[in-house]
Amino acid sequence: MKRSVNSAIKKLTKDKKIIISVLAIGLVIIFVFCLDSSGNNRINGQQGNVLGAFENTVMRLEHQSNATVISNTNIDYKALCATSSNISVGAVSSSAEVTQIKAPILMYHYVEDANTSSLPYLFINTYYFEAQLKTLKSHCYQTMFVRDVAEVLYDKKSLPVKNITLTFDDGYADWYYNVFPLLKKYQVKATMFVIVNNIGTPGYLTKEQMIEMANSGLIEFGSHTLSHQNLKKVTDNVAKDEISKSKKQLESILGRPVYSLAYPYGFFTKRDEILCQKAGYLSCVSTYPGDQQSFKSRYSLYRLRPYTRIDEDFINWLENEDHSKTIN
What we know:
This protein is about 45% helix and about 15% strand. Helix 7 (about 205-215) links the parallel strand 9 and strand 10. It has about 325 residues and is α/β, with parallel strands linked by helices. The chain is globular. The protein folds into two domains: about 1-65, no CATH class; about 75-325, Glycoside hydrolase/deacetylase (TIM Barrel).
């Protein structure tokens, strides 16, 4: 009996690998089909949706074959982590500017089923993003807003040992449909940096969507300036307007204070840090890689791109890698 069961398991595993291989070959065929004679990608509309669904099927089967993360979305994560050692540690005194805290801030842009971006390194498939949320929850990570990180640095809040902050740049409409439902599903907090002049334009979030998400208690909105200009290349007056006016307009839309800003393209100077402080922001985020934050660098906090890391690979990367040597 035992031998027949083992034989059945081996056959099932072999069959699953065959299915994955066939699907992978099919994916290549579809991709080739979606290229014209000059090699340009002509995936759009329904073609893109079909390809995205096909990619998701392949990834799900691959993940199921090698999964180490808890996949049952009905798990009571609160009970699971009730006895964990994820206690809070004392806040850092703002007078000790050299003191550092480990506070990883993850950076995302597009979260979609099919990659429609011309910048693939800014894209993550929805399936991988959900797998990352599951990984963080099953390892008892507590999510924070960017403003929470700042308040720790200002000695106003304690820091969970297993803390993580999720940030999203630009304010794309896909965020409301692809990301927000998952954040609600897993009760995960996140900070979204929006380009204020793009609010309500095609492909971007509307005011109504932003207000709904802000009222959920799971979303902090921050500024990504008025028009996403390279602050290094603009005059002092333009930089001031981009930073301060975007804050005021966001606060008017949301009816609540805005505490955080993300520099467009990650470009900024010392002048821009000073302008942020004068405008009333508690902190700003850069695209410099790292997870060690300090009061001195509160207007240039480090961030990390998780890409498609999931399961133990994701956790090992978060907890054991020297991120000062990471390349974003």
